[in-house]
Amino acid sequence: MRDEHIEDGDLVLLNQRTTAEDGETVVALIDDGLATLKRLYRIPEGLRLQPANPDYAPLHRPHGAVEVIGVVVAVMREVEAP
């Protein structure tokens, strides 16, 4: 989620819920329980999970193939002492 300024090692706080509005960043389960962090958009064929890194392609899944776990409400990063 590079363009969202979410980096490896960051803590992501979620509002635990099973639905999300278009454009919200979610943690979702796909493909036999694989978790992913992406922006969610509804499309006629189902859902598009959009990464915030242009190096990765969006994921397209049919209706019912994505389980939203929660919506991101905050990101925390540990800051190293000087």
Automatic annotation (TrEMBL):
InterPro entries: LexA-like, LexA/Signal_pep-like_sf, LexA_repressor, Peptidase_S24_S26A/B/C. Residues 1-73 form the Peptidase S24/S26A/S26B/S26C domain. Pfam families: Peptidase_S24. It comes from the Bacteria. PANTHER family: LEXA REPRESSOR (PTHR33516), LEXA REPRESSOR-RELATED (PTHR33516:SF2). This is Peptidase S24/S26A/S26B/S26C domain-containing protein. It comes from Thiohalocapsa halophila.
